Amino acid sequence: MDSITQAVLGAALQGTVLGRIQGRRALLYGAALGTLPDLDVIIRYADPVSQMTYHRGFSHSLFVLTGLAMLLAWLVHKCWPGKGYTLPRLFLAFWLVLITHPLLDAFTVYGTQLLWPLQTTPQSWAAVFIIDPVYTVPLLAAVLYASVKGLTGRATRLLSLALVFSVAYLGFGLAGRMAAEQRFQAALDQQGIVVSEVRGVPIAFNSLVWRMLAKTADGDYYEGISSWFDRQAPEMQRLPRNLGLAKALADDPLHQRLRWFTDDWLRYDQIGDALVVSDLRMGIPGNYTFRFNMAHRDSQGHWIIDVPSMWQGAGPGAMFNGDDLMLIWRRIVEQQPPLPLAAWTDRYLGASPVERGR
Fold it and tell me: What distance in Å separates the CA atoms of residue 109 and residue 129, rounded to the nearest whole number?
């Protein structure tokens, strides 16, 4: 999630647990501690694939953060013995503030290595978009109220209610994703389409309309849109993943790491002489947030593996096209006309059918 959300979540938690002792300072301390795991972004890597796949690693490990909470609790208890702290209460406050950061991250689609150093596939529960005002605003309002009024009984109750709402909203997102996956699977079954895996991901600042992805056994994938309020089958299109192009990257360890991090939700495109690899999980149809130039074809037609670089036009800024956002938000309640999936794909992917491997 975004840094503001992590900060207000940490402030609400520490204000609730330690506000009686620390007063308004609990909000400030909690906000700072709640954003601490994201300091791993200051580590610079040699390429964007490493930057992406090492983020939310050791600093988001439940093992590491539990140990850090124990250390902080012991230090505070030792250095300020007369402040009224108890060691268990300190540990509870610091532990909740720290571990809820990666847990909240895991509710997004990006991927969070909760069990680092174990090399399990990063957790990606895809219940909420990385920026969701419905989740953030109640927490922010409660924290602002507490900062003005102080950690009174009313303010503490308001913080607690905001935290309960935040948990309920995550549950709502999970239920929405599972329902969207079931609707999409049913639509595929009705058409006799056999797929090996289906997953839904939230789209553009809400948890009501979902991007749907499904892999086929022959290496293609279906992409579609489904909303809570749909009365008809979701729109969908079949697209190639172009797995034949992936053979050029067979010996590239960064490619293998990217496959692991994304759970192999990757698409390959030849655009000109470049081999572009896209993470299908994030963005809108065709306009994927993470796209990497990973190889080029030489004058003899052989693929040469490159140090990865971000493909032109990719990146988080691709999420903020105003015209596309208006169509997406309208799609929440209006299924007709459907979203222009094919037009988006042709506009954004920038590869002809021949270049895509067809």
Answer: 8
Among 177, 56, 51, smallest CA distance to 110 is for 56
Angle, in degrees to the nearest 10, between helices 25-35 and 133-149 = 150
Residue 331: partners with Cβ closer than 8 Å, 6 or more residues away = 209, 225, 227, 338, 339
The torsion of the CA quartet 9, 14, 19, 20, rounded to 10 degrees, works out to 140
Q: Name 258's bridge partners.
A: none
| pLDDT tens track for 292-305 | 999 999 999 999 99
Amino acid at 213: L
Residue 330's Cα: distance from chain center in Å?
23
Specify the 3-state DSSP secondary structure of 229. Answer: coil
How many angstroms separate the CA atoms of 178 and 156, rounded? Answer: 34
Residues 6+ apart with CB under 8 A from 10: 30, 31, 32, 33, 34, 35, 97, 100, 101
Distance, in Å, from the CA atom of 39 to the CA atom of 281, rounded to the nearest integer, reads: 24
d(CA 332, CA 154): 36
Contacts (Cβ under 8 Å, ≥6 apart) of 33:
10, 14, 72, 94, 97, 98
Contact at 8 Å (CB) between 284 and 204?
A: yes
- If one counts every other C-beta atom within 10 angstroms of the C-beta of residue 28, the result is 16
Q: Structure tokens of 294?
A: 């990973």
Of all helices (H) and strands (E), which one includes residue 197?
Answer: strand 195-202
Write out pLDDT tens, residues 58-117.
Answer: 999 999 999 999 999 999 999 998 888 899 999 999 999 999 999 999 999 999 999 999
- Are the C-beta atoms of residues 297 and 304 closer than 8 Å to each other? yes
Size (the chain), residues: 358
**Tokens at 117, concatenated:** 């150093």
| C-alpha 99, offset from chain centre | 17
Q: Is the dihedral of CA 208, 113, 309, 349 positive or negative?
A: negative
Tokens of 12: 């609400």
Residue found under tokens 């994030």: 282
d(CA 266, CA 114): 22
Compute how many other C-beta atoms are within 10 angstroms of the C-beta atom of residue 100.
Answer: 20
